[in-house]
Design a protein that fits this description.
The structure holds two protein chains of two kinds. By secondary structure, chain A is mainly α. Chain A is built from twelve helices and no strands. Chain A has one domain: MetI-like (MetI-like fold), CATH 1.10.3720. The chains are: A mainly alpha, B mainly alpha.
């Protein structure tokens, strides 16, 4: 590392050096990024090559004309579309409680969420198999209580996958909302209350609008997590409820049709980038409004 | 507890139970003496823990994952630190572009990332080697280390480092002896994010493993094929390890460093 001209001491000599230094210092990371972009470009190439060095749209045409494979992309989108609001419904109260309490409650919730966040999805999905299975604690409790006479089917179907997606994604929703809510002045709520607003009105007109940037950030994280999920449909769907990512893996590694797998990947990638773009546009508008 | 309604409390309790119960069930089920994964367990046995050590595959993949995660974390910390220095202290054209580009591997779906690396690396003839996994894991962890260290470096007053330079320390030495110790919480948080991200990665990694596999890949295929309580025993050990790390972090730098 070369000593750079410290700003206030040698501003002109410094500026010339800064560009070169910046390039030198970021070189290792930029090289890794180059591999990343080259690899992504390879997928575009693979999806457009139809063998024998020729180019064509064959893989895309097959994807668009086959309801089976288009159906997997649609299924991932549909599942993400309803799991995200459910995750929000469960995650928002947790973030709110964490932001409005202190001491042991906040500490316990933080610990719980961080441990979840740091535990492998494979293990968390496996744990849910044990809970949701025919011999799991839920079904055995229901049977013992006589609430049902045969075990509920909570596993190896859409319900099991949806339950696991919602529970596993909760921390992604809580942390961004908590980050915004803990900086919202609690006295604002007190002020609104003293001016005669009841609790429901305070929430809908004061708390919720101010926390929208966090809600949006959490929602996009969760949506993309659900959209591209592999482990949860793989383990809790057990082959009976594959989603787009599972099909892409099978096409690439079992069927060994990498061209088609690449075309499907492009479908998933385009939806992902579109959602990121939309959330950035809404995000700018939402933060503007929340900042008023 | 001011102004938190009963609805918020009950939903929070529901989530807390929904997140904690499965992990407790796994830990309990790992003590089952028979092949059944029952809760509460029928007796107390450590047979499945012993089985972990009888199966070479689990131990070998654990060692491989740990080594991979350590190496990726080290590379990612150095790269992230250099990028953070540049992003915080240098002004140049393309700075915003660099910041965005550094985050982009996190946006691409894992399954797409894994497959694209596989196709790219086999095109250039680099298969069945640890290089692919190492590249993937560095790619996936540099965004975290860069972000955490950028935040830490932004809060650190550069004038303290300048003071050391004015008193005769070479700039790199001043950085190592003055700046680095002051941003230690950021370094710790970045290292933990990087290690966990690498150690737990499954979806993209499964494309790049060969006859050596990582622990999550080994566990996943074991669940899909054999599914006896051995996985419960491994899960219990990993969950307890995670709790241990999180408690250490809380003692050392505070959990707020991780949650932002």
């Amino acid at each position: 590392m070369e000593p750079r001209g410290a700003g206030p001491v040698a501003p002109t000599a410094g500026r010339a050096r800064r560009g070169r230094d910046a390039a030198l210092l970021t070189l290792p990371a930029v090289l890794v990024l180059l591999v990343f972009f080259a690899a992504t470009a390879t997928i575009v190439v693979a999806s457009l090559s139809v063998g024998g060095g020729r180019w064509g749209l064959r893989h895309y045409l097959r994807l668009c004309s086959d309801p089976l494979y288009l159906g997997y992309l649609w299924r991932s989108f549909r599942v993400a579309l309803y799991c995200t609001p459910i995750t929000l419904l469960l995650g928002y109260p947790v973030a709110y409680v964490m932001a409005r309490t202190t001491g042991p409650v906040r500490m316990a919730l933080t610990l719980l969420l961080v441990v979840q966040f740091f535990t492998s999805y494979v293990i968390r999905a496996y744990a849910l198999i044990l809970v949701l299975g025919n011999n799991g604690i839920i079904n055995r409790t229901l049977l013992a209580l006589g609430a049902v006479d045969r075990p509920l089917k909570l596993l190896y179907n859409e319900l099991g996958v949806a339950i696991s997606l919602v529970l596993i994604a909760v921390p992604f929703m809580v942390f961004p909302i908590y980050g915004v809510l803990k900086n919202v002045e609690p006295n604002l709520e007190a002020a609104a209350t003293s001016l005669g607003a009841d609790r429901r009105r305070v929430f809908w007109h004061v708390v919720l609008p101010l926390s929208l940037p966090g809600v949006l950030a959490g929602a996009i994280l969760v949506f993309l997590f659900d959209l591209t999920a592999y482990i949860m449909p793989g383990l809790l769907g057990g082959g009976y409820f594959d989603m787009a990512a599972n099909v892409i893996y099978d096409q690439a590694m079992e069927v060994r049709d990498r061209g088609f797998a690449s075309a499907m990947s492009m479908g998933l990638l385009v939806v992902t980038l579109l959602m990121v773009y939309l959330s950035n546009r809404w995000g700018a508008r939402v933060s503007e409004r929340a900042g008023e | 507890m001011r102004r938190v309604g009963w609805l918020a409390w009950s939903l929070t309790a529901l989530v807390a139970v929904g997140l904690t119960a499965p992990l407790l069930v796994v830990i309990a089920a790992s003590f089952n003496p028979t092949n059944e994964l029952l809760f509460p367990p029928r007796g107390l046995s450590l047979a499945w823990y012993a089985n972990i050590f009888r199966r070479q595959a689990f131990l070998a993949s654990f060692r491989f994952s740990a080594a991979l995660a350590l190496a990726s974390t080290a590379c990612s910390l150095v790269m992230g630190l250099l990028c953070a220095v540049v992003l915080v202290r240098h002004r140049f054209r393309g700075r915003q572009l660099l910041a965005t580009a550094l985050m982009s591997p996190l946006i691409v779906p894992q399954v797409v990332l894994g497959m694209s690396l596989l196709i790219f690396l086999s095109t250039i003839g680099l298969v069945s080697s640890v290089i692919g996994l190492a590249l993937l894991h560095v790619m996936l962890t540099v965004p975290y280390t860069t972000r955490v260290l950028t935040a830490a470096l932004t809060r650190f007053p550069e004038s303290l480092e300048d003071a050391a330079v004015i008193h005769g320390a070479p700039r790199p030495l001043a950085f190592l002896l003055v700046t680095l110790p002051s941003i230690k919480p950021g370094v710790v948080a970045g290292a933990i994010f990087a290690f966990v991200t690498s150690f737990d990665n499954f979806t993209a990694s499964q494309f790049l493993v060969w006859d050596r596999t990582t622990l999550p890949v080994e566990i996943y295929s074991y669940i899909r094929t054999e599914n006896d309580p051995t996985v419960a025993a491994i899960s219990a050990l990993l969950v307890l390890g995670t709790v241990g790390i999180v408690v250490l972090v809380e003692r050392w730098v505070g959990l707020e460093t991780l949650t932002g």
